[in-house]
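Q: Start with the shorter request: fold the first protein.
A: Done. Sequence, then structure:
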Amino acid sequence: MPNSFDYTIDFEHTDFRKHPHLYRIGVGEQGVLLVEPYKSELLPHWRFRTEAEARHSAETIYELFEKYLLHHDFVGADMARKYLQMGFTRARRYANHPQGRKYAKGTLGATKDQPYPYSAGSKNKANAILPQAEDATTNEKARAAQVFKKYWDQARAHPEYQQQKLAFKEKYYHKKSPE
């Protein structure tokens, strides 16, 4: 599939700013910790321990998102969008499960023979989900998640982001017919 994230790329030696044609948007947060130089530019700003840290982090990452858009660097903008999304999902994980573990340890474990959603992701997906924290909707991490959610929603809906995403897909995902 043309939109599938390609994990066969040599990420250690690939500069996606110089080779944007190799980038695939993928699903969700795919590639967020692989695609350079964006990982090195965004990761140092990514924090969600407290609401205040999340606010500073999300504001900084969103500023970088807008800078990438201004420079017509869709890959950078999409990576910044992924960091905002990851801020939300990770903060929510810790809001729901303060220890960071969603699944109980057990012997079930997922196998490749099981149907989705057990066919991919955590080897513990077939195990029971641990109880949600009583204050999962109001605790510090929940508030941090809301900060990231606001900026993530803003990034996804940004008209220039939408336009550049469409142009990127048209340029790199569709084969041009011979003339």
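Q: Next, the second protein, separately.
A: Sequence, then structure:
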Amino acid sequence: MITLTSSDFNLWLTSFLWPLARILALLAAAPMLGNAAIPVRVKVGLGVCLALIVSPALGPLPKVEPGSMEGLLILVQQIVIGLAMGFAMRIVFSAVEMAGEIAGLQMGLGFATFFSPRSDGSTLVVARFVGLLATLVFLAVNGHLLMLSVLTESFSVFPISTEPVSAAGWQTLAYWGGRIFEAGLGLALPVVTALLIVNLALGILTRAAPQLNIFAVGFPITLMVGMIALMLSLPHFTPVIEKLITEGMHTMLEIARAAAGRLPQPSP
């Protein structure tokens, strides 16, 4: 006759609940899988399926009551780790959209905006366009599958335990956040450089012919040059976005490794 004790039930509950918390937190913060267009039931169902697959492969879990203070702290710890890893990958898309914002503002398309349900605000058309390009590249390189693979590997890098999260993990995330400005400016640099030359030429032309209506002539010229520069630079966006996605995957593991109190290994 099979008998179940409360300790057996708590062990089964914690072996499923704690991995599920980290998985759902990453799915909520990660790009693509955390999109508001995906129903919540689908996200929860995917998280439950992943937890059922991952939980049997986990090592020995701390023998802590799930409803105790230590159990709640472990639950919060898993949520924080999942959110940090998901946010590390979302930074890649933020960098690409920042490049679109800079290029759109320089082209004079600051008035052409779309409502973005992800950020609950407005975003420029150019930023939305390059964001869709980054999404297509992310799907083309199977980034969503690689992200789930990194999530699974994070349980061996930072196993579920009562150890507190190290501050080095937040430092790694902060350094990676600085890549938003570096990568965004790098992607928008061709468009910004072309428009800077056009604006300098228009300024010289205005000084040479003051009677010229620069507002009627300058806007179509900057818009046309910006579109041409963006069209010519789009083929070079793909390898840069792929590199950012690869760096984002390595950063996800480095965050988990640093949060566990280990030194992050350098990216290849």
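Q: Describe the second briefly.
A: The chain has one domain: 6-259. Residues 108 and 116 are 20 Å apart (CA to CA).
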